[in-house]
Known about the structure:
Layout: H1 8-21, H2 24-27, E1 63-71, E2 82-87, E3 100-104, E4 110-115, E5 127-131, E6 139-141, E7 152-159
Parallel strand pairs: 1-7
Antiparallel strand pairs: 1-4, 2-3, 2-5, 5-6
Amino acid sequence: MTTFVLNRRNLLAAGGSVLATGVSGFLLPARAQGLAPTPSMLGGSNNYRKGAPIVDRIGKGGFWMSGTVRRAGDGVPLANQRIQIWAHTTEGQEHEPQSHGATLTDKNGVFRLEMPQIIPIFGQPHGHLAYDSSEFETVFLRPVMRSAKETSLEAHFVLQPA
């Protein structure tokens, strides 16, 4: 957790920010205009299996993969978008069919899928996620966990229309 220390330097920096943005920046809600699309990550498509089935859970579960899906530009949450998830876990390697599954986003653009605990492969505990439907450009993500002891991992998509 980040600790914020209030000292003269931080106070001057905050005051300068207020002058630069104006008070209206604090009174108006944040907007996602100009939200850039998520680029595919190097290695994200490794062991990808086109058409992995939509499932309620991968394997016996115990680990949660979650995130959001929004539209580039305006940041609108995207409902009913298919996200495929796979990883090297306690129950299978990432190239094996039983390690793959897909889920759909809810009305708020949120997805969540339970799966077995991710374990390190090539020294890194990581997951793979893909948006691969035709409405938006394909994106592959490969988020890395800080520790193999974590029991959840998040990934967020901002999609560009195809």
